[in-house]
Fold this protein.
Amino acid sequence: MTAAGKNAEASPHCELECEDIVNRVLKGEIEVVLDDADSIITEYRNNMHPDPNGTRAGQFLMYLFLNKHRRSRIQRVKLEKNDHGHFIDYPDNGDEWLTEVPRCERFDPDDKIWVALALRFKRETGRDAPIVNAADRCWLAFESHLEAAGVKLEVLCRDERQRNGN
């Protein structure tokens, strides 16, 4: 969203930082990890449109569509859910840490897929799949908890966000 210029809180410098990450993905310099059920692609599609000639974000989404089955570009991970519909790979710690950051109140349940994906990929490959985030302030608030669970978080525009209290 930030790379598409759709985040009102992001500075032009932050948008450029996001575009740089997208450019690196499009060049094949950064490996992308997706779930095999396309839940993440669906989430992206709900927020932007694939467009090979449009914004960098639209080009990124088009890249995901075109390359999602090319192992040289995108890794696919099977995420399983338990009988209650929760990701098996999401840290089962009773979610006590979700209430520790008053500004966010709780970690967005829709974002648990990213955590489960990163942890499953690490378990299967022994490699990290950092979660890249530029605008959602709650990710930064939970960074230490995520890292303690084994999830790497790459925060774009970190200085700007910390200055603005995000």
The first strand starts at residue 32 and ends at 35.
